Amino acid sequence: MEKMMNVTETARRPERSWLYNLLKMRETGLIAIILILVVVMSFASPYFLTWLNVRAMIMAFAVEGIVVVGMTILLISGGIDLSVGSVTALAMVIGGLLFLNGFDPWVASAIAILACTGIGALMGFFVTYVGLHHFIVSLAVMVIARGLCLLGTEGRPLSLFSLPESFKFIGQGSVGPIPVVIIIFVVVVVFFDVLLRRSTAFRRVFYTGSNEKAAAYAGIRTRRVIFLTTTLCAGLAGLAGVIYMARFGSAQPTFGIGMELNVIAAAVIGGASLKGGSGTIFGAILGTVLLSVVSSSLALLDVSVYWQDIIRGSILLAAVTVDHYLSKRRR
């Protein structure tokens, strides 16, 4: 009898362990919060669960979610980039200006993405070889990139309605009921999530962010890791800028102001630590979804735009506070 009880006890342990690990995951809590908000808003507003509103929410966070992927990987490595909003706008402006000067839109877009990737490489150089902090370098680049946007357009939006339909398709088209933007977003998220979880090379990002000196002693070329993650973040911001250009048929020099706060907030809410060494793509995307649901809810409830900014800032502060508390517990 006692042996049977022991066998039963042993058989139940894996189930309890699996359930405990599931409940302990940060992503589980985020999913629960999102579901609660959806249920509450479905009663508060009859328009919340309509296809038009759901599609608008998905389209809103999908392109920004591409930038969140790059920011999450950079945060895990121990860096941060405040220039992503300006770099996204710069990609739109570069692509738009080249198109208006006779370039094929696909070639113009490729040049714009390469230019943004080059900006990321330049930031990586100043961080890894000159020795400046990510915060200072990205802050300077944020101002410079925004200035280049205003200089190139003289402060006026570029009208790009003559873009060919084949190019607009990536921002406005659909494959059946699914927008192409969503397909691109899912491909980017799945690709980098798998790499971050499975690839040996991307595991070095975690080691570098957790303890850069220890990682260097272990033979990891930490400078290269930080350089590449900084470059990748700017490159994905450039990709997002090109998609925005195709979606709106214009290039706005003031586009993306405040985007960096939304992106950082989404990544931190999803579990990426500002101190580096932890985070997941899936969690960051859930953070993006949460912020999108909150923004849509506030708009449907006719909350003042000024209060919306206050609420979003409060959510960011709460996320950073939780991250700081969890980091102290880990230490």
Layout of strands and helices, then pairs:
Elements: H1 2-24, H2 26-44, H3 51-76, H4 84-100, H5 105-130, H6 134-153, E1 158-159, H7 165-172, E2 174-175, E3 178-179, H8 180-198, H9 200-210, H10 212-217, H11 222-248, E4 250-251, H12 259-269, H13 281-300, H14 305-330
Antiparallel strand pairs: 1-4, 2-3
Helix pairs in contact: 2-13, 3-8, 3-9, 3-11, 3-12, 3-13, 4-5, 4-6, 4-11, 5-6, 5-11, 7-11, 8-9, 12-13, 12-14
Helix count? 14
Give the fraction of residues assigned to helices: over 70%
**Major sheet details:** 2 strands, antiparallel
Measured distance between first and last alpha carbons: 44 Å
| Beta-strand content | under 5%
Shape: globular
The gyration radius over C-alpha positions equals 22 Å
Helix and strand succession?
HHHHHHEHEEHHHHEHHH
Structural class: mainly alpha
How many DSSP E strands? 4
Task: Give average pLDDT, whole number.
Answer: 86
Q: Could you name the ranges where pLDDT drops below 50 across 5 or more consecutive residues?
A: 1-15
Q: Largest sheet, order of strands side by side?
A: 1-4
How would you characterize the overall build of this protein?
With 331 residues, the protein is mainly alpha-helical. The chain has a domain at 51-255 and 274-279. Helices cover 78% and strands 2% of the residues. The chain has helices at 2-24, 26-44, 51-76, 84-100, 105-130, 134-153, 165-172, 180-198, 200-210, 212-217, 222-248, 259-269, 281-300, 305-330, and strands spanning 158-159, 174-175, 178-179, 250-251. The chain has a two-stranded antiparallel sheet with strand order 1-4. The chain has a two-stranded antiparallel ribbon with strand order 2-3. A hairpin with a 2-residue loop joins strand 2 and strand 3 (178-179). Helix 4 (84-100) packs antiparallel against helix 5 (105-130) and helix 4 runs parallel beside helix 6 (134-153).
